[in-house]
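Hi V.,

You were right to ask for the full record rather than a summary. Here it is.
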Amino acid sequence: MLKPVIEFCSSNMHHGTDRLMNALEQDDRYEVIEYGCLGNCGECYLSPFAMVDGEIVSAETIEQLETALQENIVRKAAEREALDKLIDDL
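Predicted structure:
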């Protein structure tokens, strides 16, 4: 199974995403990457965000972002599992 890739923008760290990124880096279930810029400047300025497998996940607070990231990861895993089952059934 592939690890979810969670990408953080260093320009977004003023929202406190650095603490979340550092915590997730310690968990070997995830591939965590920091970039200088993810090209989402409007999102970056307004709220904490990260990208999970290329999809933007944002929230009003770091705590909400952490929850939203986990929900996104669980949803994507369920979607992959359903797709794999569908392919196996063909």
